[in-house]
Amino acid sequence: MRLLTREALLSFRRAPLLSALSITTIAFSLFTLGLFGLVAINLRQALRGLEERVEIVAFVLRGTPAETITLATQDIAAFPEVQDVGFVSEERALARARSELVEFRDAYRDLQVNPLPASIEVRLKEGYRDAATVERVADRLRGFGFVDDVRFGKDWVRKLDHLRNITGLVGLVIGLAFAAIAVVIIGVTIRLTLLQRAREIAIMRLVGATNWFIRGPFLLEGALKGALGGVLSLGLCFAGYLLFRDSSGGTFAGLIFFRPEHMLLILIFGVLLGLAGSLVSVGRHLRHV
Amino acid sequence: MEPSLSPPTYHLSLLTFSPLTAHYYLAVVIRFSHVYKSYPNGMLALKDVSFRVGKGEFVFLTGHSGAGKSTIMKLLFAEQRPTGGEVRVSGYNVSTLRPDEVPKLRRRLGIVFQDFRLLEDRNAAENIAFALEVTGARTDTIAARVMRVLTQVGLTAKSRAYPKELSGGEQQRVAIARALVNDPAILVADEPTGNLDERATRGVFQLLRDINAGGTVVVMATHDLDLVRQTSYRTIELREGSVVFDSAVDETEDALETP
């Protein structure tokens, strides 16, 4: 074990420039990924606020008995997608209109008959606020006999969906592209170390070192470079985050940074990239030694 | 000459060395049976090669360059696999050896080359210790074992010298020490004196004889016929991939034919 780490660390001393190059490449690719991740989590945070307001309103026919509505709300509350259900009576609708729509206060005050219908307001659980689910739930609400009309921000929900899908997709594509580049570059730097040490490897094989023993230091080297690149990229991300937040003059004061589990994920991803790069080149090289 | 050995003849041949012939059959450490080896370019390197090497033997492999000596060497440590026939070394069947068994076979062998193959950035003791480290030897035993083999090859005074500070003969001694440090059953030496002057050659050869006297089988490929003639060790001569002479067989047959 001591020998393993010593051999892995030796390559940093033998080829400092090369090692620095591979670490910065990993750091740079993870930095780009990380920046994107930051945008994504902040966007999601912002969207969550918007999504909170995704609700479906079912207008109730005039004269529907209160018991029917109570039973129906209980039914609706039991839908797996539903977070909460509220009943807004005709009177409350009018009161709400009076307080919220100040401009029409006078008009509402002089009314002889309440023109506003009672309604059932349904809010969906997080994760069910996509267009397809909203439409499905709306359809189910239309199935109730006393429901006159169902309204929800159809286009708005759809746009929200679209935005989220696009951010996810762009993130995935950019992420994969950079991951591939990182693997190739690590592969190349490990191959150079391998060639530098071809003589040593040949002797190791002659005296009966096992393949895993020979691979070990190279895999450790790759993993170590990946981890260092990960740490460096997190530092860069944090610097970028602070710079952006503080130079925005308070507009983006609410920006959030990665949670510890996100940071761990980035670190693990870096290690995996490093391992993948070294596995590829070690596997290919050792067959020829 | 018939290269394949018929057991009764072989049996008789060994009577001259040891009365324990029955025991000898149990102690065959290398066996080539009708071995063929061809390379992808179509070259036939070995043709129907058969011989056995018993415990404690010293065997010379002779022949011109390209006669097949190096191929036999490579088959011995499973760097190459035979295309036909069977190669058995120290209990392992090289023909069917799994990749993960190759290191196990090599740990029972010591391998020495003409070009020494030492690591330039490590001194003599470190070069020897390297063979122990990479085969997972216990760290606290390494120093003592390195010192023991350095003593055996007569280089204790130069344990901290780097290869380029050593003469050719001394470098080969370090290489031999490295081959010995894992206590091999067989020492495989491919032209070990090929790069050495006469004096260094004598020294290295004497060292190999001493190692053999300690019980280790030595298989040495060489085209230095003077060296071969100095001793009465068994000689297997190759020509164009075939065994054309095997002193263990032929001399006994000669003796039997002239009563």
Question: What does this entry look like structurally?
Answer:
The complex is a heterodimer of chains A (289) and B (259). By secondary structure, chain A is α+β, with helices and mostly antiparallel strands. Chain A has two domains: 2-49 and 160-286, no CATH class; 55-152, 2-Layer Sandwich (Alpha-Beta Plaits). Chain A is built from ten helices and four strands, in the order ααβαβααβαβαααα. A four-stranded antiparallel beta sheet of chain A has the order 2-3-1-4. In chain A, α7 packs across α9 (211-247). The radius of gyration of chain A is 30 Å and the shape is elongated. The mean pLDDT of chain A is 81. Chain B has 259 residues and is of the alpha/beta class. Chain B has ten helices and ten strands. Chain B has helices spanning 7-15, 21-26, 69-76, 102-106, 124-133, 139-152, 168-180, 198-213, 225-230, 247-257, and strands at 28-38, 44-54, 58-62, 84-89, 92-93, 109-113, 186-190, 217-221, 234-239, 242-246. In chain B, the strands form two sheets. A six-stranded mixed beta sheet of chain B has the order 6-7-8-3-9-10, with helices on both faces. A four-stranded antiparallel beta sheet of chain B has the order 2-1-4-5. The longest helix of chain B has 16 residues, at 198-213. The relative contact order of chain B is 0.19. Classes of the chains: A alpha+beta (289), B alpha/beta (259). Chain A binds chain B through residues 2-3, 199-200, 202-211, 213-214, and chain B through 77, 99-100, 103-107, 109, 111, 117, 119, 130-131, 133-136, 139, 178, 182.
